[in-house]
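To whoever picks this up:

The parser on our side crashed when reading a file containing two proteins. I've narrowed it down to the boundary between the first structure block and the second sequence. Both blocks are reproduced below exactly, byte for byte. First block:
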Amino acid sequence: MKGQTSLKALLFIAMFPLIISCERGADPGALSAKGAAASSSASSEPDELQGLKLYLGYCFVCHGQNGDGKGPYAEKLSSPPADFTDSTYFRGKTDVELYDFISKGGLAHGKSMHMKPFGFQMTPQQIQSAIAYIRLVNRDGRIDAAEDHGYSGEDIYRNSCVMCHGVSGKGDGRVSKMMNLNVRPLSAETLGEYSAAGLFNVVEQGFPQDSTGVRSYMPAWGNTLTEKEIIDVIDYIRTFGE
């Protein structure tokens, strides 16, 4: 018994620095707003186009494809999602405040539980890019997606598709689980139902909510991805069925 007590004491002493760091508020899942600013300054500038692609992956389901708070899942929520086109409200919010809200979620700020903490899914740079896009929407700005920005098919999939379709295309992405969305697996069987042109049209035009319902809705990517990027992401998706 004495030996067991000594062992427990030694384990406690070894873990003491970790316990103290946790009690001081260390957040292993998401950087603080101050840390995010430092990280952002040390890396490249926020990318509005990447922000748009991330937005369509993470945010459109609730906030709407145009940022007006009227996403396909909005009517299912107990409180309405934020309207990013409301310039009066968002003009009074700093980028640090928006970062903190996105990374830590609604409950951490006394807001809706439906706004999940995305600091576990998005890197600091990605959150900064999402904020840059939200600011653009707030100014009623537009992005010219005609230029090729050098994203590979895998880059595009992991930035914009993985949240619903899952890492390996099984339809088990975090957003699909959270929202109980009906996402078909990108299997050889599913992909085999479409010709090359048909699959291109699906990515380009999406599945509108008014014809498929909320559980099968998919945004149109034609105004977000170039023709080459759509082809590249389809080529990457096809590797799931091999």
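<<boundary where parser fails>>
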Amino acid sequence: MDALILNGSPRGQRGVTGKLLQSLANGLVAGGASVTHFGVAQMHIAPCKSCFSCMHKHPGVCVQKDDMEQICERLKVADLLVLGTPVYTDSMTAQLKAVLDRSLCSLQPFFTKDTAGRVRHPRWWTMPAKFFLVSTSAFPEVETFGPLITTVKAQAANMPAELIGWACIPGSIALQVEPSKMAHHLDLLSRLGEVIGRTGKADPELLAALNTPPVTVDEFLTIAASYETWCRKKLGMDKAKA
């Protein structure tokens, strides 16, 4: 299996998203997969211009020459696409969304029906056949991920790809303050990656465990209190209170 991991976090490997993706990548490699990992926020990828040159003038090739070219070359050969993103205003980061928008250069200007009867564009070149999401959110509730998961399901249908699952782990503020709270989920992601690398499928029990929050809402509020104290000091609010 050839896996392509796209980390959409502006914090790259320093953030919770980066740590989660690294554990998944380690597992994929242990399961026999080859892994290419891009930190898209550290790359130069301009937004789509909607010029349709990729459809009408240069089939399958974007007119913009930037780092998206590297990603397109990997998208053409990868079996599995892993998207990693923190939740930003109920969706993925702008950096990652730009990558998905620019992948429209794979589309033909014609129309066809997919297996669900939806009208789609056929493609000049195919996207990865399997799709997986890794996400985190500052807030502790799993409901935070609802809009993002809906978006990712739609993206999978567009590719088209099989969405083999997602690992949505809330409470990232608490996980940064107390990294030990993330240890179990990092281990689960590594184990899941190994299973995916070997079989191309995600184990349902591992997915269920991964999508169980590492801290309760009350635990989150207790841990986050130290972050709030730091914020008050940073803003000079503690001095104003004194």
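After patching the parser it read the second block fine. The mean pLDDT is 95. The two ends are 60 Å apart (CA to CA).
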